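Budget justification aside, the reviewers requested a transparent look at the raw inputs and outputs of the sequence design task funded under Objective 1. We therefore reproduce one unedited record. The lines immediately below are the structure tokens for a 171-residue chain.
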């Protein structure tokens, strides 16, 4: 007979165990009526297994749930600044050409001047012919203003990116 518990230390909440448990599982055992009633009261999950590998997989996937996801940047567009315009009360608007990808208003950006990163921020507005747009595709021109940054120069390069969360595993 084998009975398996995996416990994570947290503030006491359960009368069955002094710590919050990830799950309670048994191998070739059957919980008693009192144990089932107490588990229902504590809103605990009791699992029984006949194959040891199933327990290992459950423990592994439960532990993976506690891992923080890996954050990475995914490049979605490269934009070239062809002209700049100073607009009163708005700031500088960059007249741009989308070289590759599709730029969206919600994308984050990195501004490069002579291949050196000079600003990392967000797009304040994205326009095509005085119309606000959600996105602009490769080969089209657009106007971009950046949040809290106005020192944009001709021939600067803007890279639009988004943050991608990747689920981590134990392997």
């Amino acid at each position: 007979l084998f009975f398996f518990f995996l416990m994570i230390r947290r503030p006491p909440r359960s009368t069955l165990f002094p710590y919050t448990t990830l799950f309670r599982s048994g191998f070739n055992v059957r919980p008693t009526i009192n144990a089932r009633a107490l588990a229902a009261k504590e809103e605990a999950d009791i699992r029984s297994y006949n194959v040891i590998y199933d327990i290992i997989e459950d423990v592994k996937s439960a532990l993976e749930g506690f891992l923080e996801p890996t954050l990475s940047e995914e490049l979605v567009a490269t934009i070239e600044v062809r002209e700049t315009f100073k607009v009163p009360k708005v700031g500088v608007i960059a007249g741009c050409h989308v070289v590759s990808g599709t730029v969206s208003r919600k994308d984050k950006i990195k501004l490069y001047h002579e291949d050196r990163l000079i600003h990392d921020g967000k797009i304040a507005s994205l326009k095509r012919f005085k119309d606000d747009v959600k996105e602009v595709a490769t080969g089209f021109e657009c106007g971009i203003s950046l949040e809290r940054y106005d020192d944009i120069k001709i021939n600067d390069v803007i890279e639009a990116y988004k943050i991608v969360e990747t689920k981590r595993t134990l392997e």
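The CA atoms of residues 74 and 162 lie 5 Å apart. The mean pLDDT is 82. Computational costs for records of this kind are itemized in the attached budget.
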